[in-house]
Amino acid sequence: MRGSDPRPLASFAWNWDEVSSMSKDRYESAPPRRRRRRRRRQRDAEGFDAGQFVDSLERKLDRAVDSAVDAVDAAVSSLRPGGRDDGSFEVESADARTLREARQRADEKVDFYRDCVKYGLIVVPLLIFIPPLGFIGLMLAGLKLGRRYYSLHVEPQLRERLVQEEVRKHVQENVTRERQELEGEHARSLEHLSASIAHEIRNPITAAKSLVQQMGEDPVAKDNVEYASVALEELERVEKSISHLLRFARDEELRLSPVRMSEILDSALETFRDRAQRTGVRLERQFDCEASLVGDPEKLRRVAINLVGNAIDALEEAGVAEPVIEISLGENLAGTEVWMRVRDNGPGVDEAQRERIWSPFQTSKETGTGLGLPIVRKVVEAHDGTIELESDPSGGAAFLVTFPKERRPAGGGS
Question: pTM, whole model, 2 decimals?
Answer without folding.
Answer: 0.47
